[in-house]
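Below is how a single chain appears once it has passed through the pipeline. First comes the sequence as given, then the structure the pipeline wrote out for it. We keep one example in the README because the format questions we get most often are answered faster by looking than by reading.
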Amino acid sequence: MISPSIQLLADYTDTFWFPTSASSFSDEVDSTYMMVMWMCVLFLVPITFCLFYFAIRYVKANGIPAESQTSHNTPLEIAWSVLPCFLLVAMFARGSIGYIDQRRAPEGSDQVGVKAFKWGWTMDYGNGVFHPELHLVVDRPTKLTMRSSDVIHSLFVPAFRAKRDIVPGRYNEMWFKPSLASEKVSDEELANAIKDTKEKFAGVFDPERYQFTSDGYKYFDLYCTEYCGKNHSEMQSLVVVHETQDELNAWIKKYSGRQEGESPAEYGALLYNRRGCASCHSIDGSKRVGPSFQALYGSEHGIVGQGPIKVDENYVRESILEPKAKIVEGYSPVMPSYKGQLSDDDIDSLIAYLKSLSPSVAAPASEPVANP
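Resulting structure:
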């Protein structure tokens, strides 16, 4: 029987150097890293020993002139120059094989579009379904076709050991095959988290707070690893790996539009989190990259080169579809356009949500969902 202390040590050392291994690339990347590390240790230890030994063995008293040393050992110098090159070639070959594997997506891979922007992510699942979370199926290769709407970003999933830069003006691609499905929390734990969110956090669900998504899935982290501006550190998302394609299809269907019985304001609150609004617009009055949504609707804002303007339905719609048409004074024109990504009902729902955050505006009644 293994003692608890030994088992704890085994569990700890299994992830001592790396995060969870969750893709077909993980073992290859980890073993290559360990090979390079131990080769470095192989040289570091004797070199460090010799450094201290020679410093002590050949120390001279003050005032004694240094001795001239002009002789050398040619075979020794060739050996310590040439032999390490074979190790360098081995490291290069091992790394190249893994790199080439990561560059070539298998035929028939699932496809997901990725748009990076300051400071968020939008995943395109087709048929008008967009979401900031990346959802995949276990043991199925998935290819990401990525673009940036502003500056250079870099998508990195530590658990997959996969990273790729996203350069504006071109499409970059990456792929991986998840090998570990995400766990689901109990219905009771999810219900408690949703209740807590409604009571304490104005209905804004934060996966980091509970360590699972609003759908009850535990997740893998997704980061931007290319410094892209002031809020670079907040450009985070998450990856959920489903057990089956049917489970993923059900999730996609759930987010294909406003659900039956869901009011526009409620759906607008969900879109506020799903479409990345929360990363730039607060709902508590604090200033972020863009104006706060608190009491925004019905107020007046100074517009660069145009004077004050009232925030109404037309202004909000134009700001979503043509965000650089009217720039609020004191803010930079960094918001990306959502033209072609949001339906009319989506925009109406966001407007309803803005109205719900403005006490001076009466909350609209629940409206039926068109084409549920």
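Residues 1-13 have pLDDT under 50 and may be disordered.

See the next section for the split statistics.
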